[in-house]
């Protein structure tokens, strides 16, 4: 069933979009990531222009993350105070990111920037995750031989000023690192159409020392508001949010997130991470190939500089 997307100016199969939304929703529920870092490149592959994919995907992440947060709020695994600090940084970052996006769009360089950002980030994040989860699986097999080292309680983060108590996470740390993490995630949300969970989740565990069970819900809580704000800015300044595309991805995403949350409970964390890392590296390789290989048609006709 073909459907015409007015803003993207392409026809796509509606069931394909529902399926993509569902797959990314499942990932969102399982790993606590918004899923945009996989969905946006998948949209490139089916012919959606990068500027439209980024702006519209931010919209879809809002829904799948909201669906995931409800499940975590029931379990009381959301640190609302930490989420708010991350959110303040996120909103500032998103505003700056959209300004940069608009400037590059006026130069006609935005498509290349988005794809290059994806290749770099997916390569680095996928590689690090794969190594880390592979080592975790090896350690799990050798548990009898060596006791698992306890996480260091103090690092440079604890020496910074402006400390605040986060009761749900059991932390008393400076607000500067969470603000900086939020800021960088906000910029990424605007330029790449991602929730930023794939950077925020490791940063919250390893930099801030938050308990893993609280991290996923808190990450999703911040993602909802930052991506909603980003979508609003893109819609009012770029006019690149395609509502028909967003609705189809949204329906698939909400259903998928509920399924993913249930699957995640029954799988080991190390297995989940290896699986996610492999998918990230596969998408990265495909994007890199598309950038390096000469296209079949060297020239394509399109409206220059928007409407």
TrEMBL record:
Official protein name in the record: Probable membrane transporter protein
TM stretches of this protein: 12-39, 85-104, 110-131, 187-207, 214-233, 239-260, 272-293
Alphabetical keyword list: Cell membrane, Membrane, Transmembrane, Transmembrane helix
Source organism (scientific name): Aquicoccus porphyridii
Membrane association type: Multi-pass membrane protein
Similarity-based family: Belongs to the 4-toluene sulfonate uptake permease (TSUP) (TC 2.A.102) family.
Compartment(s) of residence: Cell membrane; Membrane
GO cellular component: plasma membrane
Top-level taxon: Bacteria
């Amino acid at each position: 069933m073909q459907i015409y997307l007015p803003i993207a100016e392409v026809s796509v199969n509606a069931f394909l979009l529902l399926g993509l939304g569902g797959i990314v929703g499942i990932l969102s529920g399982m790993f606590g990531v918004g899923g945009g870092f996989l969905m946006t490149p998948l949209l490139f592959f089916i012919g959606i222009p990068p500027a439209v994919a980024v702006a519209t995907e931010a919209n879809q992440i809002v829904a799948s993350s909201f669906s995931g947060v409800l499940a975590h709020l029931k379990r009381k695994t959301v640190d609302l105070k930490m989420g708010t600090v991350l959110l303040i940084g996120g909103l500032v970052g998103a505003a700056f990111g959209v300004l940069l996006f608009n400037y590059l769009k006026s130069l006609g360089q935005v498509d290349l920037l988005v794809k290059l950002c994806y290749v770099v980030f997916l390569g680095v994040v996928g590689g690090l995750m794969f190594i880390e989860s592979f080592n975790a699986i090896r350690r799990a097999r050798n548990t009898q031989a060596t006791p698992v080292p306890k996480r260091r309680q103090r690092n440079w983060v604890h020496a910074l000023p402006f400390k605040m108590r986060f009761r749900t996470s059991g932390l008393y740390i400076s607000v500067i690192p969470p603000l900086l993490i939020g800021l960088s995630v906000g910029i990424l949300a605007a330029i790449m159409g991602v929730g930023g969970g794939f950077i925020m989740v490791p940063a919250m565990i390893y930099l801030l020392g938050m308990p893993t069970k609280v991290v996923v819900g808190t990450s999703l809580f911040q993602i909802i508001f930052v991506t909603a704000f980003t979508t609003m800015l893109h819609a009012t300044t770029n006019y690149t949010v395609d509502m028909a595309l967003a609705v189809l991805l949204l329906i698939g995403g909400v259903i998928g997130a509920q399924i993913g949350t249930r699957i995640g409970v029954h799988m080991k964390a190390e297995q989940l991470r290896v699986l996610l890392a492999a998918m990230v590296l596969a998408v990265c390789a495909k994007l890199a190939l598309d950038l390096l290989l000469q296209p079949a048609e060297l020239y394509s006709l399109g409206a220059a500089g928007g409407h």
